[in-house]
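Our collaborator T.R. sent over the components below with a one-line note: 'Predict the complex.' Nothing else. No constraints on interfaces, no templates requested, no preferences about which chain binds where. So this is a plain run: every listed entity goes in together, and whatever single assembly comes back becomes the starting point for the next discussion.
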Amino acid sequence: MKKFTMTIDLGGTKILSALVDDENNIIMREKVATNIENGAEGIVKDIIGTIENLIKNADVGMQDIKGICLGVPGIINPFEGIIYNAPNLQLKNYNIKSEIQKVIDLPLFLENDVNLGALGIKRVEFNNKVNNMLVIFIGTGIGAALILKGSLYRGSSFFAGEIGHIVLNIQKERSKKNNSTFENFASRTAVVSRIIEAIQDGEPSVLKEYVVKGRKIKSRAIAEAVEAGDKLVKEHLYDSSRVIGNMLGNLQTLLNFDTIVLGGGVIEAAGDFMMPIIKKSFKKSYFDVTGEQTKIVSTKIGDDAPLFGGWEVINEGLSLNIK
Amino acid sequence: MKKFTMTIDLGGTKILSALVDDENNIIMREKVATNIENGAEGIVKDIIGTIENLIKNADVGMQDIKGICLGVPGIINPFEGIIYNAPNLQLKNYNIKSEIQKVIDLPLFLENDVNLGALGIKRVEFNNKVNNMLVIFIGTGIGAALILKGSLYRGSSFFAGEIGHIVLNIQKERSKKNNSTFENFASRTAVVSRIIEAIQDGEPSVLKEYVVKGRKIKSRAIAEAVEAGDKLVKEHLYDSSRVIGNMLGNLQTLLNFDTIVLGGGVIEAAGDFMMPIIKKSFKKSYFDVTGEQTKIVSTKIGDDAPLFGGWEVINEGLSLNIK
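Returned assembly:
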C-alpha cells in the first residue's frame, strides 16, 4: 500500500518540500533556493531534483508515493496542471504537470500556495472539523483561502480569495486614484511605508536607524519594535489591525464562517499585539449575531501548512480518478 | 409515484403557494393575505388551510405530494423546522414544522425566502447549470443568497447572505454613527428617502406630488418617474446603481462567481435604466480578470422564483432522508 504524499511548495525565493504520511508526520523535508534565471526548464529541473532527493534521502521507493502536489504562488488549474500566471516565477500559461510527468511517473496535482496552506491548517490544526473557514495571510501582500462546505472553494475560474484586492470604500469605483484596497492598507508593505513616512516626517521610533541606513524593515524588525514598546509602530499596527477586524466582520456578515484563521509574517511577528485588536473590531463589525459563534485564531504551523495541505489535494484528485 | 412538490412562501403581507411538478409546471396556485394578529397559531392554521385548498383545487391526493417547503422571511433551520427569528411574522424560536405536522402527515422543510428564490432562479432560469452564483434582491431592503459549488450555501449558523448589512467603508468600525451599510444606501427605502429630502430642499421632480400629499413612493412610482425622464430620480438611481456595481465587483474579487443575478422590486421597476450602470461599475470594480467571464443578468420570474425553489429543498431533504 502506498504510504506517503509529497508536497513541493514552490515559492519565489525558496522551494520547501516534504514527504508526509497519513498521520501528518513529516518523514523527510528539503529546502532549496528557487532559481528563476533558467526559466521554466530550470524550475522543472529543480523540482525533479527535489523529488528524487526526497525519495533517496527518505529511503523509500517511487512505488510508495501516492502522488505529488505542487504549491504555486499564482493562478493555476489544479487538475489539468496548468500554471495560468505566477509572476514570482515568471511563468504564464505553462503546463508544468506534463513536463514533470515526462520524467516522473506519479499522479501530480497543482494547487495555489495559499489554498494549500489553508488545507494544511484545516487538516493539522482542526483535524478537518471545520465547515466554513476563512484563512487569511498578512505578509508583504495579503492572501486568503476559503474552505466552504468542508472543502476548498476555488471559484469559477480558480480566482477565489483575492481578498487583498477588495476596495475598502465602495462608494467610489476602483480606479488608479481610488486604489485603496485592503492590501494597500493592511499588508506589511503598506504599514511599513506609512511608518517610514512618519519617521521621515520626524516622528521618533526605534526603527529610525533602518530608515537612515535604507535597510528593509521586515517582520522581525516590527516584532522587535513592538516588544520595545515603540509608540509609532504600535499606532500603525493598531490602525491596520482595526481595518483587518472590520474586513473580517464584513466577510462574516456575508459568509457566516465557523472559523477564521490568521497567519503570515506580520501575524507571526506581531500577533500577540494585533490579535486582540483584530478580534475587538471584528466583534463590532459583523452584523447582529452572525459572528457570535465564530472562532477567530492565529495559526501556529507557519511555513509547514502547505506541506500538510498537499495530502488533501492529492487524495481529492485520486478520488476523482485524476492522475 | 409521487408527482408534486408544494411550496408556501410565507410573506409578511401575503402567502403565495403552489403545487409544482418535476417539469416546473405550476399545477395550482393560491394567494391569501397573511394574518399575524392571531399569532403563531393563526399562521399555522392559515398554512394548513392553504395546503388543504391547493390539494382540493388541484384535485390531487395527499399521497401525490412529495413534500412541502415553507419559505420564511427570517433565520431558520431548514431541516429541524425551527424559525429562529422572523420579525415580519413576529415569530421567534418556534418549531413550526412540528406544529404543522401534527395535522399534515407529509415531509416538511423550511427555507429562508431569499434562498428559496435563488434556488428557483437556478432551477428555472439556468436549468441548474450554474456553479457559483450570487442572487441579490434590491427592494425595501437588500437580501442575497449564495449558490456555491452548485448548491445553496447557508453558512455555519444559517446566516449567510446578509449582504445588506455589509459596511460600505471599512476604514471605520460599524457603529451607530457609521451605519452606512449597503442597504442603508442602495435599498428602495434609502434611495426614496434621499429623493424626498431633495424635493423638500426644492429640487424639481415628477414625484413632488407624492411628497406634498405624503403618499408612499413605491417601485411603480419610481419606474414612472424614470420613464418620464425625471432628472432627480435618475440621478439618485444612478448613484445607487454605481454602488451596487462596486459591491458586486468586491464580492466577485473574493468569490469569483460564474453568475450574478439581480432581482427585487427596484430592479423589476427600473432595471432597464439601472442594469447598464451596474454592469459598468462592476466591470471597473472587480480585480484584474476575476469577473471577465461572469454573466450578470436580471431575473424574469419575480415572485414565482421561491415557488420553484421549493422543489430543490424538498428533494435535497428527502435525499438526506429527512422528513
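Summary for T.R.: The two ends of chain B are 17 Å apart (CA to CA).
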